Amino acid sequence: MAVPVRLIPSPPTVCLSTPLLSLPPIARKPSPSSSCSGSSRARPGFRCSAANKPSPPPPEVSSSNSSSNSMAKIRSEVLSPFRSVRMFFYLAFMASAGLGSLIALTQLVPALTNPARLAGAAETLRGLGIDVAAVAVFAFLYSRDRKASDAQVARLTREENLSRLKLRVGAGGRVVPLGELRGSARLVIVAGPAEFVEESFRRSKPFLKDLMDRGVLVLPFPTDGNTPALQFDGEAEEGENEGDGIGEKSKRLWQLTPVYTSEWAKWLEEQKKLANVAPDSPVYLSLRMDGRVRGSGVGYPPWQAFVAQLPLVKGMWSGFLDGMDGRV
Q: What keyword terms does UniProt attach to this protein (predicted)?
């Protein structure tokens, strides 16, 4: 017998013409401080950068300046080890005399207003005068040492900046900072027009061997942008062997070439300004074995004076006279 099947009707379906919750679209406004190059989708090779913020200086520039200043202060302490001690005692004596002056003033004012204590006012006034004079003297001594220290640190900072300038050793050789020549060579910088460099080269030829024995190396720096014509080929002079000719000696003596000439020009311009020298004047600058500036001047380098005053690099006096390089 078949059982009848009863169908249960499904509930009616309700259609909503509007969503249950309607959210307004979020509008993204571009930030005024940032801008992106390329489309909104990230792509390799595209970079976002701040538009309203200045670019910070390269970290190596600021670190180089701070390093030069720190090294200059260290060298200043080595060259003048007792200056800091003197300045400390000057400050201590000034503080002591200033305290004495204050005490004398507190005793002098009541003595002048009280006739009974007027007899001791002369002694108090004498002590006040001594204290004031002591403050003035020690202030003068402290100011003099401070100015000398600042001038020495400024000079050593310029020397440290010079030691960081780049140069090339030989034709096609490696590029090294000037500071790497410390302890091995006495550098002479010849800066001026190409004709000035050529004439300096010609005047150095009679002293090539003597200059090389004293560890002198020459760095020609033409300031007019022209390349000086330095003729290294030459016949052997009278009394010289053919294998040790003038051309080979000239190449060894004049083997340095400045790199990044704009930095060299900037350093020389600052030196000329401090020395009250005209910017277009040809100059020379000689360094000691330890990198300190020995002397400088306007005109051609005194090669004969170098030979007469500089000690030999090799021999019994080498090393002992490295700090006594003469006046030039």
A: Membrane, Transmembrane, Transmembrane helix
And the tokens for 235? 């016949």
- Identify the pLDDT of residue 199: 92
Q: Where does 167-235+242-309 sit in CATH, by number?
A: 3.40.30.10
Expressed in angstroms, the distance from the first to the final Cα of the chain is 135
Q: Are 233 and 202 in contact (CB under 8 A)?
A: no
How does DSSP assign 4-71, residue by residue? PPPPPPPPPPPPPSS-S---PPPPPPPPTTEEESS-SS--TT--EEESSSPPPPPHHHHHHHHHHHHH
Give me the DSSP letters along 114-178.
-GGGGGGHHHHHHHHHHHHHHHHHHHHHHHHHHHHHHHHHHHHHHHHHHHTSEEEESTT--EEEG
Is the sign of the CA dihedral 135, 136, 141, 147 positive or negative?
positive
CA–CA dist 313, 316 (Å, integer): 9
The tokens for 134 are 């002591």
| CB contact at 8 A, 108 and 131 | no
| Number of residues assigned to the chain | 328
Q: pLDDT, tens digit, for every residue of 275-290?
A: 899 988 999 999 988 8
Partners of residue 34 on adjacent β-strands: 50
Asked if 149 contacts 76 with a C-beta cutoff of 8 angstroms, the reply is: yes
Phi, psi of 53 (to 5 degrees): -105, 135
The ranges assigned to domains in the chain are 66-163, 167-235+242-309
Strands of the sheet containing 175-177, edge to edge, are: 175-177, 166-169, 256-258
Query: Which of 266, 274, 284 lies closest to 155 in space, CA to CA?
Result: 274
